[in-house]
Write a structure and sequence with these properties.
globular
Length: 207
């Protein structure tokens, strides 16, 4: 019996268009401060931590900062990073730090996603505690986040990949420990093709 095709509409939630639409659907009356166009229209290489929007939140702006951050960024738990994790021997899994069980990997090339921005509070594991992206522990982007490219982030994640669908011990279990810039059309096309290829290889047979 053939396995069902992955739903493209679900994966499209990582796109710039989805972020804009989700933010636009918010009640304008609830926004005490408007989101600058420069925030949503920032070039892909712009450091969002340097925007005027990033400031100390108060009871009037904390919700706004959260929604604005979610409009421009995608929490890691909504992005299929496993597709781009690679094992050294080409196997469809990598062992966890204890060598007990394996985490699925897709072995797909990053391609145009290599320079996608990744924001995380402790990606190198320098400080005590877990790394966060955007979640209940870190509700909006702030100067506390480090900025990396996805190319540089993947090796860090492979150092502590966890197993199965669980993240490793150093990453937040709510947001997977990081957040990425939303994908443009070219990036999403590669992402979607890679997801399909990785899932076909993981579950066997053609979709």
């Amino acid at each position: 019996m053939p396995l069902p095709q992955p739903d493209e509409s679900i994966y499209r939630r990582v796109t710039v268009e989805f972020g804009r639409e989700a933010f636009a659907s918010e009640d304008p009356a609830s926004r005490r401060t408007p989101i600058p166009d420069a925030w949503l229209d920032s070039p892909l290489g712009a450091d969002l931590r340097e925007a005027d929007l990033i400031r100390e939140a108060d009871r009037y702006t904390d919700g706004l900062l959260h929604r604005a951050s979610m409009a421009a960024l995608v929490p890691g738990d909504q992005f299929s990073l496993w597709v781009f994790l690679r094992s050294k021997d080409g196997q469809p899994f990598v062992m966890d730090r204890y060598g007990v069980t394996g985490r699925s990997v897709g072995n797909q090339p990053l391609g145009p996603l290599a320079d996608v921005q990744v924001y995380a509070t402790n990606p190198q594991g320098i400080y005590e505690g877990k790394s966060h992206g955007l979640c209940r522990h870190q509700r909006w982007l702030s100067p506390e986040h480090d900025l990396l490219t996805l190319r540089d982030f993947v090796p860090l994640y492979l150092e502590d990949p966890g197993h199965g669908y669980w993240t490793g011990s150093g990453w937040c279990s709510k947001c997977a420990g990081y957040t990425i810039r939303r994908l443009n059309n070219e990036q999403f096309a590669h992402y979607w093709t890679s997801v399909q290829a990785a899932e076909a290889a993981a579950f066997g047979g053609d979709r």
